[in-house]
Request: fold
Amino acid sequence: MNGFRTKRMFLAGAFAFAFTTACATGPRPTPVAMNAVERPAPVVPSTPAPEVAEKGSVDNLFAEALKAYEAGDLDRARKGFEQVVAKEPKTLNAQFNLGVIAEKQGRPADARAAYEKVLFLDPAHTPSVMNLGLMHRHEGQLEEAITLYTKALQTPGHEHDEPVLNGLAATYRLAGKLDEAEATGRRVLARSKDNPEAYKTLALVAYDRGQYRLAELLIINARKVADKDPAIPNTLGMIYLKMEDRPRALAQFQKAVALDENFAAGHLNLGALALSYRNYAGAERSFVKALSLEPEGVEGQLYLAYALDGQKGLDPKKGVAAGEAFEKVLARRSEQPEAVCGAGWAYAADRSGFEKAIAFLDRCKELGATSPQDKQLITAKVQGLQTMLKNPPTPAPAATAEGEGEPKKDGAAAIGGAGSSSSPMMNQLPQDTAAPDPAAAAEGGTEPAPEASEAAPAAPGQPVDGQAAPASQAAPSPAPTP
Reply:
């Protein structure tokens, strides 16, 4: 395809990998990784427009629409490209651009329809294949994405399209089809030995298989040809967490956000590290930053709720804020046990939230995952809250690190990973004031941990966790892991 320009964009949900470890009594937030793929921006005409195009001509309308897009006037750009399509229905680039604009304006159904119109005419239109494939992956429609990529590659003359092959390899990995992912990645390297996306996918495949040294070598190969890609140090950080080398992991996450301040996955991982150290304030800062970049990120919202909940013993209003954050999760995942129970215990921290706390705790009590012991705790807590609501407020006692009546826990685990919790209860942890603040360090508040030689051999007898995470990644306790 001649003349289309690309810029790197990241969809947190599309390439998120939840790394989890078993936790006895509650959920533990864990790092999120991202395998970046080029995402095309609006294309330019396949042939250069004449210096002076006739007013109202297709070339003139296209050029004016593109100019409006680059100036940030999406509505005017949209109208311009619609005019182009009205005059020339087979102008694929204009139709594709309407899809890009629809995504930017938060109209995913319109974006999907625009890309599908292009692909009906040209199944191998690479920008449309890549953008629609990412939309499928963002929605968890992995088989649909695989079918889309495969159809494009079967089009004569497009059997070796590297962006599509890389997208297919990454999707195979997300679907847990590691052999297919490895074969597709190697297919790319057979023709392009320095392709960083192929190396990144192969590194993540090795990671999923528990082959951490191999994963490290592969991702370092990617760095040799793409040293400004923040996804590479982010992946290295996850690998080092699995190797139980937290200082190097922290340094890599800091490097990721230093390379790109708007790299949401790096901020999520820094927050997860802070949370694992019970540095709730630092975790809150990182998760707020990540959500400012990816407002629709459900995991980021859930992790922010954990960070706020951890501070409710010192500030009951943080408990109310945590409850509100859990409710935002439930707006997207209405029956998520961690959010239901978390909201109940969080709102119970302040009198203004007692009524909501009772409602959520009653829901939590009815969940199948709630243990008999937790049900007893909930019953006692609800009775206490009801009694306090009947009586006038009394002076608040001194703040304590653990909420009254809440089951004590050692950490929180993310949803859908290798280690499911035996109970969906959400409660708080005491603040560890001596713990480092990865978030502050990333902002230049402290000196990053020194980075050791990245190719250093494993220490003799060093234990290695051989369990591969499913379609995600995990972190060792007490620090978050890939």
